[in-house]
Design a protein that fits this description.
single chain, 3 domains, 15 helices, globular
Length: about 375
């Protein structure tokens, strides 16, 4: 499992997915800017053409889009006619409020805004890991590092707007993430597997090795804590030795992504991305299997089997009736109508609630 985290930066499809998600999210922000007349249609076209040429770039090159600025039709409150892309959701929400747009529309914008805020720090973490992978060939065996890299990628996927043709690769990347994280946060489980394999052959030697493994893990954890404390000390010292000019903060290129947030509290996230939609449906599938465990004669007749969930995520039906018409669900209903209809009756209200929380404008 050593250096397994490098797989995200060695595998071309994985890199293409991660950089592609960033470009899709930036593109969505530009579309929102034009929708609320913050930018002209020509500006939208020009910026999106510039993004298209970056599709397929590696993570480091694609990261340049996070510095993108757009030309505003009207100046913002600071009299700027130019805005960093990460300020667009705030400006759009401000404009929507001024136009007295419906609460549901404001909720959609607010949801996108708070998800979009996470994109930059998450991608910065991923980019840093990519650079380490490219330039530092030594093994990175710190627990924190090996958990942080896949965790950042998982969360990046969760908050991102994505496309149907990315679903398969997303699931492969998530599995890699889960495997790596599980290995490092459940070391005892890994030790037990090794014990089962070696116990009959060399019990005394294995006992000694097992002890060394645990000692090594504890050393790693202690080392991570020391590094973390050192980082906090450096940050605190920098705070003491520096002053911030709040009036000029908005004009600082390094702080272009700072937002003028008037909201002090973060909303509870209710609207779903494709990835969080999958999580909700998988949780519902578990409940469904338990409810009908004695009646479902084959996994294929679970109304929320994994292929069905993938089809729902791909086509995003608006209603239960639309969902029942999906190809991978229709044949199941025809084959086992009675048990399938029972499951639909049981899950109908829950599925309706989930589908209502999917907003196709920002998914």
């Amino acid at each position: 499992m050593d250096n397994k985290w490098r797989i995200f930066f060695i595998n071309h499809d994985y890199q293409k997915l991660i950089s592609g998600l960033l470009i899709i999210n930036i593109s969505k922000a530009i579309e929102i800017a034009q929708k609320y007349n913050l930018i002209s249609r020509n500006e939208l076209t020009n910026k999106q053409q510039g993004l298209k040429i970056r599709i397929g770039q590696d993570i480091s090159d694609a990261s340049e889009v996070m510095r993108l600025k757009v030309n505003l039709i009207d100046p913002d409150r600071y009299n700027n006619y130019e805005a960093n892309i990460f300020r667009i959701p705030s400006l759009a929400l401000e404009k929507a409020k001024m136009l007295n747009r419906p609460r549901t529309e404001l909720d959609v914008l607010r949801s996108f805004k708070f998800r979009f805020k996470e994109i930059k720090p998450l991608f910065d973490t991923i980019k840093h890991a990519r650079n380490v992978s490219a330039h530092l060939l030594e093994t990175r065996d710190e627990v924190g590092w090996n958990v942080n890299v896949p965790s950042a990628i998982l969360r990046f996927i969760e908050v991102s707007v994505s496309l149907p043709d990315q679903i398969e690769t997303i699931e492969k990347v998530k599995k890699e993430c889960f495997d790596i994280i599980s290995y490092y946060i459940n070391p005892q489980s890994n030790n037990n597997e090794e014990e089962d394999e070696e116990k009959s052959a060399e019990p005394q030697v294995h006992k000694k090795n097992s002890g060394n493994i645990i000692k090594n893990i504890l050393y790693k954890v202690e080392n991570v804590e020391k590094q973390t404390n050192t980082i906090f000390e450096i940050v605190n010292q920098k705070k003491k030795n520096s002053t911030i000019n709040e009036d000029n903060e908005i004009f600082n290129d390094d702080d272009d992504d700072l937002e003028d947030d008037e909201e002090e509290t973060y909303p509870v996230e209710k609207l779903l991305t494709r990835d969080t939609l999958r999580q909700e449906l998988e949780a519902l599938s578990t409940i469904n299997k338990k409810k009908f465990q004695d009646e479902i004669t084959s996994p294929m007749f679970n109304i929320l089997q994994t292929p069905v969930i993938s089809e729902i995520i791909k086509y995003l039906p608006d209603t239960i009736e639309d969902m029942k018409k999906l190809p991978d669900i229709g044949w199941r209903i025809q084959s086992q109508r009675e048990i399938m209809e029972k499951q639909i009756d049981f899950l109908e209200n829950k599925i309706k609630d989930i589908l209502k929380r999917v907003n196709k404008d920002i998914i």
